[in-house]
Amino acid sequence: MNRRRMDQRTFHLEELADGVFAAIGRRGTTSHSNAGIIDLGDRSLVIDTFSTPEPATALDAACEERTGRPASFVVITHGHSDHWGGNQAFPNATVIASTLMRAHMMDMVAWVRELQVDPDPLRKEIATSQETLAHTPDMAERTRLEEVIAHYLALLRELPTLKYRLPEVTFDASLTLHGSRRTVELHTVAGHTRSDVFVVLPADGIVFCGDLGFFETQPFMRDCDPARWIAWLEEMEETTYTAFVPGHGPVGTKKDLTREREYLEALVAHVRQVAARGESVESALALRLPPPFAAWQAAESGRFEANVRALYERLAVQKQ
Ligand SMILES: [Zn+2]
């Protein structure tokens, strides 16, 4: 599919339909996650706001440029701060999230306030990563570390001016926004986190998945409910929607949802087998995933380890 691409400094826009844009982030920045811009006709909607105000300000400017007005609504897809840290950059908008998600976001605010009082843990994290980088020959791992360092440095730079803004409107199951040009449905589900929101544009066949979607990269599973996440992916695979915007990675199709589901299923099955044999988490970590997941694992071994540990712990808790 050939889509019009518009480059910004740390993200680029892809026009998925007239007035519907995916904002695809760039790794190693505080806009390493994806966002979206939707022209509702009489108002404009932004989905997610990156990690910090700087790229979020550029996102609102892009919204104004592409739709003729700044965002009236900002919808947040889940509580991880790389998707809503830029909320303060939307002065004209009402921020909408799920009720449960808002509670999760309050924990994040506490974490950032601590960092604002004492940024040393972040500085130490940067120093440790730089130290590791100096002794890492592997190119993929070097790239990953460089991205981590660049991201933390950008966060450190914006930390003093960060004012985490919580949502003003929350909902529990679904909410519909009726614009003069298009209708947008917001639905809640547990999957990537305890409360995710995905955004459906029924007439356009487009879904903004938030982090329920990770394409061409390993999904982040620390806070997930794997069974419900897999069920959601299956549900989407059954729909007639054609374009899916993930929280991380390029815009995809149902094929990408299937691949993501296969990764989740493979990892859950593997960790379950290891746990059932009474073996330790270390033996689960010895797994080498088959293609196409081998490349994902090689690119981000830390993500793989975090996922395996989270699943192992989860299964151990379930057994008790
Ligand atoms: Zn996330």
Notes on the protein architecture:
- The chain is an alpha/beta fold.
- It folds into three domains: 5-104 and 165-250, Metallo-beta-lactamase, Chain A (4-Layer Sandwich); 116-161; 263-319, no CATH class.
- 42% of the residues lie in helices and 22% in strands.
- It has nine helices and 13 strands.
- The chain has helices at residues 53-67, 99-117, 120-134, 139-158, 226-237, 254-276, 281-285, 293-299, 301-319, and strands at residues 5-7, 11-17, 20-25, 35-39, 44-47, 73-75, 94-98, 169-171, 174-178, 183-189, 196-201, 206-214, 243-248.
- Strands 1-2-3-4-5-6-7-8 form an eight-stranded mixed β-sheet. It has a five-stranded mixed β-sheet with strand order 9-10-11-12-13, with helices on one face.
- Helix 3 (120-134) packs antiparallel against helix 4.
- The longest helix has 23 residues, at 254-276.
- The chain is globular and about 60 Å long.
- Bound molecules: zinc ion (ZN).
- Zinc ion (ZN) binds next to loops.
- Zinc ion binds at residues 78, 80, 192, 211, 220, 247.
